[in-house]
Write a structure and sequence with these properties.
The complex is a heterodimer of chains A (about 70) and B (about 350). Chain A is mainly α and about 70 residues long. Chain A contains three helices and no strands. In chain B, a hairpin with a 4-residue loop joins strand 4 and strand 5. Classes of the chains: A mainly alpha (about 70), B mainly beta (about 350). Chain B: Keywords: Coiled coil, Repeat, Transducer, WD repeat.
Chain lengths: ~70, ~350
């Protein structure tokens, strides 16, 4: 009997989870990805690994060498 | 008695009716998601300029661990890094000078997770000991951090991941026992348990919003779950991966997240569209993605692989921008400096590398 109750409870949890997922509002992929693209465009200039540093001196991890390549 | 409760709570529900309803809901979910799948990300991105990141090089190599480095985290000061290892040690590094500033011995080997508190004044770590221990840093000079340690969280299996949810007062953990949990650091009290994964939780990440009440978890049940921290419920589930999910990371925009899996792919899931919107991989990439990380803008997705490399993907066009070779064993963790100026990779070759 206990086993049946526990199976019922497990299945109820699964079904309740699906009910919650089914209840959420969704938007079209086109709208979602346009927002992602916009966020990236707005922040690309701050992305050092992408656009580099304005000067290598600003890069805290620059090579600590006084030599220059001739 | 128990049967009585089941009957009173809902006289209509039987196991069969619940199973039937679950099947119907699954089908409805799939149909709804498909209906809104009107365009692909790569299609939208085709119009964008291609990008390059050719200048990314190894700038520092941090040597000092005696075995596999399993996890690392940057200090909010953008200069220090904490790493944890199979050797049972926690090391704080000055990434600018490559020097070790602090070594803490943990009670067991395989320290799988470590994290810096938002204030930078506390560390958390744990692993095979099933616990999270916090170490206050700085303060009264006499006492070592190890002497002031405090156990916060205890799981019934190994602790795979931990983070401070935007506060020094709480701790969020994921465990091999299949649960995530929120703890009060001061009292060590369990505030909320999150049950939903069918196997080990491998990774967690906090949504970048100010509210900080949503987090995501990935697990060996191949699932990615999005949680409401207040209710303790999973609000969304993504089960597109074909093998263990090793890493999850919110996109800086906040409404999407990336995952890395043993199926050798990384994926982008959008929360509002409620589905996978991009996949990153290629035929030559056959080893698992152990860790994923975003660049500041979210244009670049970094991933560390089992084939000893890390690589950078163009998140929008889906192409590979750069291969980061150099490690001599699996790359276990990939972490961006808080200001986005450098990337740290931690490897089973016992070293960390700083790329900039």
């Amino acid at each position: 009997m206990d086993m049946m109750v526990s199976t019922l409870q497990q299945q109820r949890a699964v079904t309740e989870q699906l009910r919650r997922e089914a209840a959420i509002k969704r938007i079209p992929v086109s709208v979602a990805v346009t927002d992602i693209v916009r966020f990236i465009s707005d922040h690309e200039q701050e992305d050092c690994l992408l656009v580099g540093f304005t000067s290598q001196k600003v890069n805290p991890f620059r090579e600590k060498s006084s030599c220059t390549v001739l | 008695m128990a049967a009585d409760t089941a009957v009173t709570s809902s006289p209509e529900e039987t196991l069969a009716s619940l199973v039937r309803e679950a099947e119907a809901l699954k089908q409805k979910l799939e149909e709804e998601r498909q209906k809104l799948n009107d365009v692909t990300l790569s299609c939208v991105a085709e119009r964008l300029e291609p990008i390059t990141i050719s200048n990314l090089k190894v700038r520092r190599i941090l040597k000092g661990h005696q075995a596999k480095v399993l996890c690392c985290d940057w200090s909010p000061d953008k200069r220090h890094i904490v790493s944890s290892s199979q050797d049972g040690k926690l090391i704080v590094w000055d990434a600018f000078t490559s020097s070790k500033e602090l070594t803490i011995s943990m009670p067991s080997t395989w320290v799988m997770a470590c994290a810096y508190a938002p204030s930078g004044n506390m560390l958390a770590a744990g692993g095979l000991d099933n616990k999270v221990t916090v170490f206050p840093l700085g303060g009264s000079g006499e006492e070592e951090p190890a002497a002031r340690k405090r156990t916060v969280a205890t799981h019934t299996s190994y602790m795979s991941c931990c983070l401070f949810p935007n506060t020094d007062r709480q701790m969020l953990t994921g465990s091999g026992d299949g649960t995530c949990a929120l703890w009060d650091i001061e009292s060590g009290q369990l505030l909320q348990s999150f049950q939903g994964h069918g196997a080990d939780v491998t990774s967690i990440d906090l949504a970048p919003s100010e509210m900080g009440d949503t987090f995501v978890s990935g697990g060996c049940d191949r699932a990615v779950l999005v949680w409401d921290m207040r209710s303790g419920h999973a609000v969304q589930a993504f089960d597109a991966h074909q093998s263990d999910v090793n890493s999850v990371r919110f996109h800086p925009a906040g409404d999407a997240l990336a995952s890395g899996s043993d199926d050798a792919s990384c994926r982008l899931f959008d929360l509002r569209a409620d589905r996978e919107v991009a996949r990153y991989g290629r035929e030559s990439v056959i080893f698992g993605a152990n860790s994923v990380e975003w660049s500041v803008s979210g244009r670049v997705l970094f991933a560390g692989y089992g084939d000893y490399t890390a690589c950078a993907w163009d998140a929008l066009r889906g192409s590979r921008l750069a291969l980061l070779p150099g490690h001599e064993h699996r790359v276990a963790a990939v972490r961006l400096a808080p200001d986005g100026t450098a990337l740290a990779t931690a490897s089973w070759d016992a070293t960390l590398r700083i790329w900039a």
